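Aim 2 progress. For Glutaminase, the working sequence is reproduced below.
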Amino acid sequence: MRTVTPVLTGLLLATLGGSRALAATLDTKTLETAVEGAYQAYRHLEDGEPAQYIPALATADPDRFAIVLMTVDGKVITRGDSDVAFPIMSAAKPFTAALVMQQRGAQALVDELGVEPTGDPFNALTGIIRTRHEPLNPLVNAGAITAVSMIRVEEPRQRWPLLLDYLSRFAGEPLQLQDAVYQSVSTSNYRNRALVNLLQQEDWLEAEADTTLDIYNRQSCVAVTAQQLAVMGATLANAGVNPVTREPVLAPELVMQVLALMTLNGFYDESGWWAFTAGLPAKSGVGGGIVAVAPGELAIATYSPRLSPAGNSMRGMLAIQAISRELGLSLFNPGTAYDSTADSSTAP
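Predicted structure tokens for this construct:
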């Protein structure tokens, strides 16, 4: 059985707290310069298009673009359409996994679901057939649907209000469902219907299949702005304490596990390339949002509905990569001199 060891927990806690030293060197002017540079570099990029398989997403304005950076002490830098609401989609998945771990512990997620990268598209069937011993994790659709069913409640009707409230605590303010997007998703999500039926057949789910899928759809259709998404990321960067409300939302030792999941699985079959070029825990959504976390320092959220073939925001990815290089944020930065202008922005 795979275990989350106390030694690993201690090492990751030290990393989470120790990186605050760099945060002190990132003054406001330096942060503003990095954000402005990334915004101007990619604001007119026309690569990619909005998600076409969900009608409500297909009509998104492809020219929308926002970057929001929030530090762990609550400093906010915004550029572009930072107050435009969009559906959070898969960017909600790390926070749902966080709720499961907060209720049941990280080991329960490892034992009952898994955390290994799949290397496959977000809606793949990989990992569901138990006899194949393929990997599964809570950041791909099959694993995320299962994670929803793992949320503990006394009565099934309590599951959605509990999840929405938890997402809102990360954002520091009440979040709401985008009804039009929810209706569109509910009538067009044929692939996820196949996934939930197969999950039920293979005995993954801890709740009724149709209800579980409905809550998963609702989770995906929560409306956020780039600024709200940045607060959610900054809560993870701040060891689980919301930098706006000062409310502890997630235990620090569990923050590490969430960030590990985001590093390994946040961009599906582009996750390796993302780690190679940006070096930050992050999660994307086909609604056009991305949230990236520099532990102990800051979070960056972006919004642009122009997606790569893998379903990740093109402008958002390139902007965060540029900011990470400019500020030296990569988790893998050895702290030695390097060429921050080196081009790492071309996808394989």
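The mean pLDDT is 90. This observation will guide construct design in the next reporting period.
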